[in-house]
Specification:
heterodimer; A: alpha/beta; 5-stranded mixed β-sheet; 18 strands; 39% helix; B: alpha/beta; 7-stranded mixed β-sheet; elongated
Chain lengths: 595, 1248
């Protein structure tokens, strides 16, 4: 690595999440401060460090010193850090979240993680091919195309046990082998970077933080199957990822890692970046290829599979970002080293976007086989605010909700699937006792319904009818038979849709009915939302014993629904109450009771 | 744009087909590998439903109707997109699979808004197709309207007068300005039919040998009799009273339904051979067992409900007190009925009103109706109540009689006041007595019309006498009606059916008619030994009722009040029994018919969604929820888009892009709100829409429909006649869809049509309907004999050799043959030619000189299967759209397409190589290609399969031409590609060549094909497309060339008389004035045409001929395929074209000329000096010369190929080969309609 410790290094995490939290301003503040004081410090940028709950994050490393990490920085704090830490050599202890050699609470966030995919994220400058190469980048590509036959590469990947990280978990080596064996001289490789799950952002983070690792994995795959052209299909909503990808491709071509003569082998590999317009369904591989071809992004029936008949009818290998990012590590470190992580059938690690009712949300990479409890409690720090863990949603909008009773299952493809959820691309949303499971099912179905391409009858209309029923239930207008109808429709949509979107769209509904049926029944029969989340079903009342008659609630009520004499208990007129919650928030005596 | 290439799995020619074994519903079958499961199942007679699949298109798999279960697969599988695999076990019709399909249908229906049939029809007990008959009235087809009504109701004369019109209560026009006069219109159509020559009597099927007995001659019995007789059963009706009609006769007074009208109606029913035996009553004269003994196989009991309910008051049996029915029957029978001065009628139904109004007419001074509820609750028909009030009838509401008093006869009725209490079972509020409110009404006649019930005493008596009799086994209700199944009218006794009032209790005539219809269907099944209880699956979806509609839905409907019924003035009415309502006039009916809102779906008879919904028992409201709302889009001149009926199968989008290459339609948005819309959301007419109508043809619902060329579009169950399009030489199969004597629609017979075939036909207002002869300066109408004599005489005045005959390349082969015969024999060697062929024949001449026949050697199938297509493109995508589809198919299969064209045509855009060369430089380009073939040794002896003559003489010309080519390398490359392919086709039409050099350039194209070894090789060849429907036929008959020469002869005065059949050379010429001047020089000019033209203006005699939909015969297309032309309509002038030509031929000394096309066909074939197989053309036509024309070598006299570049003398007057003439259309062009699409009219412009 081309870094000396002669100067102080200040590294700002400038991924989209960091920038959104104000990292660019912090970066600018450091630049100003360094300029003002004429300090010989090196101001660096890097990608996502993973601790999203702490953004913006800045590392300060004094020459020859330890790494100190600050979290949640604002520009006005920069002056003091420079003053005390950079100049004075004394870290500002109260703002530190992590320090080499010290046991700060956030250390637990990293303790259980194994960072293979994210090995360079938050470490190197993603726009510098030199830093990537210095970190051992493109060694794997060189090793593959100079020292191994394509078959040997495929054998290595097969032996590693790597499975597709896009969700379905198809063995990657086998996929490559099918594409390799498919007849034809023209073949394609494609990176599926159309990350569409709301709440999942690992692909973006990898592309923003370490784009070369994906390109290197792609180049190895191209060598293995015999492709000379590739596409990175990436969401146009990821401008930073697109920008860094383009820089990386240009740089890699400049260095001979890509382009006309890859590493002097005489093989060529042209990589195009195709920006998708943000249709969730384009994450489905056949729709993705249609989109690249200029058609409307609509899935078609498989078989034929892309490995046989893919882009423009040619054999094509499609993997997602995380899958490709694993490949250089495997080739460099060997299949066995990779397979040492994980369970019998699920090898290596998995990156999760940990979100929801969790203390430490962010991007985490854990070995397969770790239990959900460990991820949620040890890495994520558990449910905050004294609330009770209720369920965890795995697999994004097409996934399922796993209840507390299964929190000790290991994270691997088979175990997760058995619960009715799916591994998916790695969204992990934690829910506590304030989350209504009907409402959450409605939320996810609303998303998939909107994103259905509209082709299959069941997916287009069936999910709409399911959503209407869920809306009805949440509004307190559910009727007997609604649950059965949801199950009937859900099963039909699953069994009679062409692509993964439709086949999995009912999962959140079906799993919540399976594990939280009583919650649905409460909505329908008792017109009650046990989690007190569905507004139409709430009743606001005044606890006369606690009410002091201060009149505050009556004054804040926008609907004029609260009335009462001064110093006497007030009352809420139910027919006027809009359940806006203003009275409860205003009351200083906890006298407003919500049921 | 890069064309999308997909391998076709449907093309197996020349490939040995591999078989795989699959297990289909438990049976092992061998199927072709590569087929889809759907195709494989169909091949074994197992139908799988589908909405989104079209055989012309790649599988799409969106509707899920074709779902099947495959063992070992977890999910259901769309069979349209799944290929068979060895050992696959498929289940296509299990309960679970059917449930998936039903749910798919129900989901689609939950977002499908419309009315399969209009609410008027659904509300009608007999389900009369109201919208259909109103639409027929709107276009003046009154008899057809009556005929349509009589499909389910044989009593339109009566029902048109007496029906309580439940239909009109549901009419959506109620929300605008009052219901359509549905019943008045029905009466109008029925009156018109009865009053105009032969009223409609339906055909009767051959006798079945089965006999049915109907008991009672009321509407139920006679209806059942009417339909049973049509099905071929022998029917006898037994009636106790002396006249037919039942309650129509006895329950309805003369002034509402005159007995003469009823007699006419019954007469039209018995005209089917139904016998009515009067004076025979069940129980009194015969029993059911007697009927069985007499050989009747089935019995229908239509006994009616003639018994009156008693008032149950004191004095009821006193003289002067009548029951309503008794009173009306006696009046109807003409008995001397006397009524008093003051009459009290008790009751609020129609019988009460009828009795009251009858009493007015019988001279009563004061008639009072006493009814126990209020006016609102009266069951009588509103209009009737009003009429009674107008006629002075008084009403006492909320009153009931308690006693009738009088000396000897009645005189005073005591009544008591009532008030309305709680609603009763019928939903009406129950009248309650107001105590002490008695009052009296003076009345010397009291008529009690408070209800009727069936008189079943006859059945009960027989039953009592013989407990084993059928009568004893008939189950009755506690209300004294017969128990019968509603759907089939089956009683508890097999073979005995019952319907009408005897089952329903007193109800309306239309309900009895409906029951009669259902009974007839069930009895027919019974007589044939089938399951009587069968119920045909049916399905209808409906919009909201009119009073629940969004007011915006009808906001734009023009307000137009209902046509009033003409009535007899009140003064004239009460003095007698003359009919009060006088019926609509024709104009009133036409006006009223236009008020119909056309609620019912135009595709109701074809809709696949409806058909499957019925078949799978889908419910329209199973998944009711939000509907996607959008207004119909009527902006395109021919095509209507109804987004609310779209099921998003994308067939239209795909056919437009993949087959037509227009991409005028696309998807919009995602999820539930995804929609099909014209590209970029513009009006369809502003997209690249070709108006070919393929989208309409493939639409499985009514999301895309054809806008009607009529005041009201129907829908009707149209009669289809398969014929051939009359425009270009592609010879597309068309279906002429007719209703009555009108053409409603042209639809594709097999695959495709272009805008001309689909929308280019319409009725013309200016048809020639009688012959014209010149008198002085003008043409005047004349009789046929006079005109034909004049024509024969006029053509004969000039000496042989100075007469010319011109025929349109749109005459049928039979007509062209007869015309040629007239020229050859009738006019002693007159020469026959065709203006329309003058350019084209020079191109085809190149083929004729070289190979023997002036005909193309390749077919469209060859194009589709070719590896290389060299297209000399005059924009065939515009000129011969459907022919261009085969090129498109070839490209999709992976063929190499080389296009030579001046502009970037649509074909150029999908070509692998486009050579932008103007027509004037085509010769040098082809010459350069030929040069390269010679240079690379293709002309060397032994390389060509046949002997070739003339090449040496050509060498220098070709070489010098080639030097002028600016694209020599590309030309050479194209020529070598043609030579190198196993299958290659050179494709062109007359407009591909420059008029000045057409002969030379076409010859070069043939030369290139010859040297490339592709001129006559199987699967390869030269395909010159004919510009007009029967250009090939006329060529085959010897009309080849010479129009220009003959025209020169006319100009020089050598040709003195001419006969022009179906052509308008003045309009089609580059210099119309010169042609007009030349024709004026003729001493005699006879013109045969369907409409007046610029040429008929100059004629000495004009003879009207038929148009396409009136023709019978054959056309020969560009591929030498003789195809049948059939016209379902009668010729406008009453004579077919062949008839006119035959009559002329007979006058010119050809006595054996017949007028029947079928008889002329063999004669015509015999006259052709061509290799034609024997026998008439089958459904796919008859290709003369077979698939490969020169399989046995060239047809030149010496058997070798003759190469030359032709004479090359260009004509100085040009006739456009696309020259339009009236024969190309059914009646005349609707060019003005086609002009509504600017880019379509562009290609219609006749260029000089």
């Amino acid at each position: 690595m081309d870094r000396t410790h002669a100067a102080t290094e200040i590294t700002v995490g400038l991924s989209s999440c960091g920038i959104a939290a104000g990292a660019a301003e912090v970066h600018a503040a450091f630049a100003r401060e360094i300029e003002k004081r004429k300090i010989p410090a090196l101001l660096r940028r890097t990608g996502c460090i993973g601790m999203c709950y702490r953004e913006p994050i800045v590392d300060v490393v004094l020459p020859g010193g330890a790494r100190h990490t600050y979290g949640g920085l604002r520009p006005e704090q920069v002056e003091r850090i420079v003053e005390e830490h950079v100049v004075g050599g004394r870290p500002v202890a109260e703002w530190l979240v992590r320090a080499e050699g010290e046991e700060l609470p956030d250390e637990a966030y990293y303790a259980r993680q194994v960072r293979l995919v994210l090995r360079n994220c938050g470490v190197i400058d993603p726009e510098s091919i030199d830093e990537y190469v210095a970190a051992g980048g493109y060694d794997a590509l060189a090793r593959a195309c100079r020292g191994m036959t394509p078959e040997q590469v495929i054998a290595e990947v097969k032996e590693s046990g790597l499975r597709g990280r896009g969700g379905a978990g198809f063995p990657t080596g086998l996929k490559w082998e099918l594409a390799r064996k498919a007849p034809g001289t023209k073949k394609y490789v494609i990176v599926n970077a159309d990350e569409g799950d709301p709440g999942a952002f690992m692909d973006r983070s990898v592309l923003e933080g370490d784009p070369h690792s994906v390109l290197e994995g792609l180049a190895i795959a191209a060598y293995a199957i015999g492709a000379d052209e590739g596409y990175v299909y990436v969401r146009a909503e990821y401008p930073l990822a697109v920008k860094r990808l383009r820089i990386a491709i240009a740089d890699a071509e400049g260095r001979g890692f890509l382009g006309d003569d890859v590493l002097g082998t005489g093989r060529s590999l042209r990589i195009h970046v195709k920006e998708g317009a943000g249709a969730f369904v384009c994450g489905e591989e056949t729709a993705l290829m249609a989109s690249i071809e200029g058609q409307r992004g609509m899935p078609r029936l498989r078989p034929p599979f892309p490995a046989v008949k893919g882009l423009w009818g040619k054999p094509t290998n499609i993997n997602n970002v995380e899958t490709y990012a694993n490949v250089p590590w495997i080739v460099s470190n060997g299949a066995r080293a990779f397979a040492a992580y994980g369970t019998e059938k699920s090898k290596g690690t998995k990156v999760f976007a940990l979100a929801g009712k969790i203390s430490r949300g962010g991007l985490v990479e854990v070995p397969m086989g770790i239990t959900l409890r460990e991820v949620i409690n040890d890495v994520g720090g558990g449910v905050p605010g004294g609330h009770r863990f209720k369920a965890v949603q795995l697999g994004g909008p097409s996934g399922g909700c796993i209840p507390e009773e299964f929190i000790d299952i290991p994270v691997d493809y088979e175990s997760v699937t058995q619960t009715g959820a799916i591994m998916g691309s790695g969204g992990m949303v934690v829910m506590d006792d304030r989350t209504c499971m009907v409402d959450i099912a409605r939320f996810f179905l609303n998303f998939t319904q909107d994103e259905s391409c509209g082709k299959c009858t069941f997916c287009r209309i069936g999910t709409k009818r399911m959503l209407e029923i869920l809306n009805r239930i949440c509004e307190g207008k559910g009727v007997d038979g609604d649950i059965e109808r949801l199950e009937e429709l859900g099963r039909a949509v699953v069994t009679s849709s062409l692509c993964g979107l439709g086949q999995s769209a009912p999962n959140p509904v079906l799993t919540t009915i399976k594990y939280f049926r009583s919650e649905y029944e409460a909505h329908i029969r008792d017109r009650k939302c046990p989690a007190l989340a569905c507004r139409s079903l709430l009743t606001y009342e005044v606890d006369a014993a606690k009410c002091t008659g201060c009149t505050l609630c009556a004054r804040v009520c926008p609907a004029g629904a609260v009335a009462g004499e001064r110093k006497k208990p007030h009352a809420i007129k139910q027919e006027l109450c809009t359940k806006c919650d203003a009275c409860r928030q205003a009351c200083k005596f906890d006298a407003i009771v919500v049921r | 744009m890069t064309p999308r290439r997909t391998g076709s799995n449907s093309f197996h020619e020349g490939v040995r087909v591999a078989l795989v074994k699959i297990v289909l519903n438990g049976n092992e079958v061998a199927v072709e590998a590569g087929l889809t499961v759907l195709e494989a199942a169909r091949a074994h007679g197992v139908e799988i439903p589908t909405l989104c699949h079209d055989e012309q298109l790649e599988p799409f798999a969106s509707c899920w109707l074709c779902a099947v279960r495959i063992e070992g697969v977890r999910r259901y599988v769309p069979s349209c997109a799944t290929r068979v695999a060895d050992g696959m076990k498929v289940w296509t019709d299990t309960d679970d699979v059917r449930a998936v399909r039903r749910m798919a249908l129900e989901l689609l229906l939950s977002n499908h808004r419309g009315d399969c049939v209009a609410p008027c029809q659904t509300e009608c007990p007999a389900s009369v197709d109201v919208q259909g008959y109103i639409a027929l009235i709107a276009q003046g087809q009154f008899r057809e309207a009556a005929k349509l009504v009589k499909k389910v109701n044989p009593f339109p004369l009566s029902i048109g007068r007496v029906c309580p019109r439940p239909c009109e209560k549901e009419c959506r026009r109620n929300a605008v300005d009052g219901p359509v006069g549905i019943d008045y219109l029905k009466r109008f159509a029925a009156d018109w039919d009865a009053d105009h020559d032969t009223p409609y009597v339906p055909p009767v099927a051959p006798p079945t040998g089965k006999r049915a007995a109907m008991v009672g001659a009321g509407p139920a019995s006679l209806t059942a009799a009417y339909y049973l007789a049509q099905m071929g059963h022998e029917v006898t009706v037994f009636e106790a009273l002396p006249h037919p009609g039942g309650m129509l006769r006895y329950g309805i007074p003369e002034y509402r339904l005159p007995k003469t009208v009823l007699d006419t109606e019954v007469g039209l029913i018995t005209a089917l051979g139904i016998r009515i035996v009067y004076g025979k009553a069940l129980g009194r004269d015969f029993t059911i067992s007697d009927l069985t003994r007499q050989g009747y196989d089935a019995v229908f009991l239509g006994l009616g409900a003639m018994a009156s309910r008693k008032m149950e008051v004191a004095g009821e049996d006193m003289p002067g007190v009548w029951s309503g029915t008794e009173f009306l029957v006696d009046v109807a029978l003409g008995k001397p009925v006397k009524v008093g001065r003051r009459v009290a009628v008790v009751g609020g139904g129609n019988t009460a009103i009828d009795a009251a109004r009858t009493c007015v007419r019988l001279g009563a001074e004061k008639v009072t109706i006493v009814y126990r509820r209020s006016r609102k609750e009266m069951p009588a028909w509103d209009v009737e109540v009003e009429a009674a009030e107008h006629e002075g009838v008084e009403m006492h509401f909320l009153a009931a009689p308690t006693a009738i008093e009088g000396e000897r006869a009645c005189g005073l009725v005591t009544c008591i006041r009532m008030e309305l209490g709680e609603p009763d079972a019928s939903g009406r509020r129950r009248p309650v007595v107001v105590k002490g409110s008695e009052f009296t009404v003076e009345a010397d006649t009291v008529i009690a019309a408070i209800g009727q019930f069936p008189d079943l005493s006859s059945i009960l008596e027989t039953a009592a006498k013989n407990p084993m009799s059928p009568e004893a086994r008939i189950v009755l209700t506690k209300w004294g009606t017969i128990v019968a199944d509603e759907g089939s009218c089956v009683t508890s006794v097999p073979g005995v059916f019952a319907g009408g009032d005897v089952v329903n209790g007193a109800a309306t005539a239309i309900e009895a008619i409906a029951a009669g219809g259902r009974a007839a269907a069930a009895m027919d099944r019974y007589l044939r030994g089938e399951d009587v209880a069968f119920k045909a699956p049916s399905f209808n979806i409906h919009k909201e009722r009119w009073d629940a509609l969004d007011p915006d839905d009808l906001a734009l409907v023009e307000r137009k009040p209902r046509q009033p019924m003409r009535e007899l003035p009140v003064g004239e009415r009460v003095s007698g029994f003359a009919e009060v309502e006088l019926g609509y006039s024709e104009q009133q009916a036409l006006d009223e018919a236009t008020r119909c809102l056309e609620c019912g779906c135009i595709s109701t008879f074809e809709c696949r969604l409806r058909r499957y919904a019925a078949e799978y028992g889908a419910a329209s409201d199973a998944f009711a929820g939000e509907l996607l709302r959008a207004e119909p889009d009527e902006r395109h001149p021919f095509i209507r888009i109804e987004p609310e009926k779209c099921i998003l199968c994308a067939r239209c989008i795909r056919i437009c892009e993949d087959v037509q290459g227009a991409s005028a339609l696309g998807f919009f948005r995602r999820g539930f709100v995804a929609q099909m819309k014209p590209s970029l959301d513009r009006p369809l007419a502003e997209t690249p829409c070709e108006a070919c109508g393929q989208c309409v043809a493939t639409c499985p619902t009514a999301a895309l429909t054809v806008k009607a060329d009529a005041p009201k579009p129907g829908p009707w169950d149209l009669e289809k006649t398969r014929s051939v399009c009359g425009f270009c030489g592609t010879g597309c199969s068309i279906d002429l869809n007719t209703i009555g004597d009108r053409l409603a629609l042209v639809t594709p017979g097999r695959d495709n049509l272009c805008v001309r075939g689909r929308f280019g036909f319409t009725a013309a207002s200016d048809r020639l309907v009688s012959p014209l002869v010149r008198r002085g300066l003008g043409l005047v109408e004349s009789g046929w004999d006079e005109a034909l004599d004049a024509a024969a005489r006029g053509l004969s005045i000039a000496p042989p050799g100075s007469v010319a005959v011109f025929g349109s390349p749109r005459l049928t082969n039979e007509e062209a043959y007869r015309l040629k015969q007239i020229a050859d024999a009738g006019l002693a060697g007159a020469r026959a030619a065709s203006f329309g062929l003058s350019l084209e024949s020079r191109a085809f001449g190149a083929l004729g000189r070289a190979l023997g026949y002036a005909a193309s050697t390749a077919s469209h199938r060859d194009v589709e299967a070719a590896e290389v297509v060299l297209l000399l493109d005059s924009d065939i995508a515009e000129e011969q759209t459907v022919a261009s589809i085969s090129v498109r198919k070839a490209v999709r299969r992976g063929a190499r397409l080389v296009v030579v064209s001046e502009t970037e045509t649509r074909m150029a855009r999908i070509a692998d190589t486009w050579l932008p060369v103007p027509r004037t430089e085509l010769g040098p380009l082809l010459a350069a290609g030929v040069e390269r073939l010679i240079a690379s040794g293709h002309a060397e002896p032994g390389r060509l399969p046949h002997a070739v003559r003339g090449l040496g003489e050509l060498g220098a010309d070709v070489a010098s031409l080639a030097r002028a080519c600016g694209h020599a390398d590309a030309a050479a490359d194209a020529a070598l590609a043609v030579a190198g392919a196993t299958r290659a086709v050179i494709l062109a039409n007359a407009l591909s060549f420059d008029a000045a050099t057409v002969e030379r350039d076409a010859s070069l194209a043939v030369l290139l094909a010859v040297l490339a070894g592709k001129a006559a090789a199987p699967g390869s060849g030269v395909l010159f497309l004919r510009m007009r429907a029967n250009g090939q036929g006329l060529t085959d008959l010897g009309y080849a060339d010479g129009a220009a020469e003959l025209f020169a002869g006319i100009e020089r005065g050598e040709v003195r008389a001419a006969l022009v059949a179906g052509e308008d050379p003045v309009a089609g010429a580059s210099d119309p004035e010169r042609v007009r001047a030349a024709l004026r020089k003729l001493e005699f000019l006879a013109v045969l045409d369907a409409v007046p033209s610029r040429t008929t203006e100059l004629a000495s005699v004009v003879l009207p001929i038929a148009a396409l939909a009136e023709e019978t015969g054959t056309f020969t297309n560009s591929e030498r395929l003789m195809q049948r032309v059939r016209g379902p309509l009668a010729p406008a002038a009453g004579v077919t074209t062949l008839g006119v030509l035959g009559a002329l031929a007979r006058r010119l000394g050809l006595p054996h000329a017949t007028d029947a096309a079928d008889e002329v066909f063999p004669e015509m074939v015999g006259a052709l000096r061509l290799p034609v197989c024997a026998g008439p053309p089958g459904p796919d036509g008859l290709r003369w010369g077979g698939e490969s024309l020169y399989a046995a070598g060239p047809a030149t006299p010496d058997g070798s190929i003759h190469l030359s570049l032709g004479r090359g003398d260009p004509p100085d007057v040009l006739f456009d080969p696309r020259m339009s003439d009236a024969l190309e259309v059914l009646f005349a062009q609707r060019a003005e309609n086609l002009g509504l699409l600017p880019h379509v009219v562009r290609r219609w412009r006749v260029s000089p």
